[in-house]
Design goal:
Layout (H helix, E strand, L loop, with lengths): L2 H23 L2 H6 L1 H20 L2 H6 L5 H13 L6 H29 L3
Protein name: Nucleotidyltransferase
Keywords: Hydrolase, Nuclease, Nucleotide-binding, Phosphoprotein, Toxin-antitoxin system
Organism: Thioalkalivibrio nitratireducens (strain DSM 14787 / UNIQEM 213 / ALEN2)
Length: about 120
């Protein structure tokens, strides 16, 4: 795997770590009313989706357990429909999807690092 793929995976993990921390201090109401939180959380999700788009099809095929397509689709929806972001869905992603996704991406990094001899 190319070095850039590892970097994109690390970017995804960094953003997932950030979102996990935010989910510990925010609730749905705060997310809906705090402009800074909205922008930060949406931006993190956009970064995750964009980084996922940069990963090779081969890497994504080796790790079908990660919902790569859902990550990129969420990014596209937020970028193209930024006036229509449903923060209840965003909150659900933070509360229910991010923890498992974090574990999956960590595992991918570990597995791919072994393939690279790292």
């Amino acid at each position: 795997m190319s070095r850039s793929s590892l970097e994109f995976l690390r970017h995804i993990l960094d953003e997932l770590e950030y979102l996990s921390a935010e989910a510990q201090i925010l609730d749905l109401r705060q997310l809906q009313t705090d402009a800074r939180a909205k922008r930060a959380v949406v931006r993190s999700l956009e970064i995750i989706g964009e980084a996922a788009k940069q990963l090779s099809e081969d890497l994504r095929a080796r790790h079908p357990e990660v919902p790569w397509r859902a990550l990129t689709a969420m990014r596209d929806k937020m970028i193209h429909h930024y006036f229509g972001v449903d923060y209840e869905i965003v909150w659900d992603v933070l509360a229910t999807k991010v923890p498992g996704l974090r574990a999956q991406v960590r595992q991918v990094l570990e597995d791919e690092g072994r393939l690279e001899g790292g």
